[in-house]
Amino acid sequence: MSLQETIKKVNSGQLASVYLVLGTEQFLADRFKQALQKQIILTEDDELNSASFDMAESLLGAVIDEANTIPFFGDKRLVAIENPYFLTGEKKKIALEHNTDELIAYLEEPSDSTVLVFYAPYEKLDERKKVVKQLKKVATLVDVKEMQENDVRKYVQQYIHNEGYEITPEAFDLFVHLTDMDLSKIMSELNKVMLYSSDTKKITKPMIADLVPKTLEHNIFDMVNYVTKGQAEDALSLYRDLLLQGEETIKINAILIGQFRLLLQVKIMQGAGYQQSNMQDVIKVHPYRLKMAQQQARGFDEVTLKAMFQDLVENDYRIKTGALEKDLLFELFLLKHGNRK
């Protein structure tokens, strides 16, 4: 059952006794959480029937006690379990001793007056565990796995359309870039953009550029593009603007080290015949960031990337030891590599 269908059932009052919200797309998990709360927590008195437990801090016994408690002045009790790491193979440094047998016993006969929700922000669970098998047997699964780029684009475009707004293709591309194709960021910024354009219902590229903040990482991305195209003066101008905004040279250099490390990894893997999905398994970065890195890596050969990465690492050492004035060091780097074409 899709998330939309599950929410539709919740909104109509058709509540399951147990839900398993599985996946890492926080925005979708929050949508489901809001739908449940809206349906169950109708008055201030109903707030007494809502409880949330973080499994890094609370024992399962407390959860079971809460789930078995009769609701006060209401029909349902809502009990949320956050970070149920005991459902995975994950090892916690400071782990509580959870008695999962208690939970299994509860799941065999869950309370009719309680809605128990597991918010599991993981890609998968440990299917070998008895508690996972029992949970999957009785729970309604709510799939909130991370959406692929095309799905995010479709979701956001449909949302904009449903709200009666229009957005130009150029504005949309800039918008998803500045929000890193992160659905939670997109929806948060979209509310602001829609409020600003509420008179015309039209969203333009200049509007996005003015309203959606550009992070340091985005500016670094632009700086790398300038270097790729041999636009040293533009790269220098951007660097000086960042200094005026209060950014530190050592921080800019550190982020560039991370970016060129990623570009070098991508370049080596491209040469070895890796596809994006295979790279994703190895590098473990957001798919959109990986896609952007693949595009940038095409502007460099492997030898150049290695040389630039090494220069940045040496700059980091020189800045920290005061061997040379930091602004001069960084500007020399941009001039050296930004004039290579």
Automatic annotation (TrEMBL):
Its EC number is 2.7.7.7. Keywords: DNA replication, DNA-directed DNA polymerase, Nucleotidyltransferase, Transferase. The keyword Plastid does not apply. It catalyses: DNA(n) + a 2'-deoxyribonucleoside 5'-triphosphate = DNA(n+1) + diphosphate. It holds the Pfam family DNA_pol3_delta_C. One of its GO terms (cellular component) is DNA polymerase III complex. GO terms for biological process: DNA-templated DNA replication. It is an enzyme of class 2 (transferase). Residues 217-336 form the DNA polymerase III delta subunit-like C-terminal domain. The keyword GTP-binding does not apply. Residues 19-144 form the DNA polymerase III delta N-terminal domain. GO terms for molecular function: DNA binding; DNA-directed DNA polymerase activity. This is DNA polymerase III subunit delta. It comes from Vagococcus coleopterorum. The gene is holA.
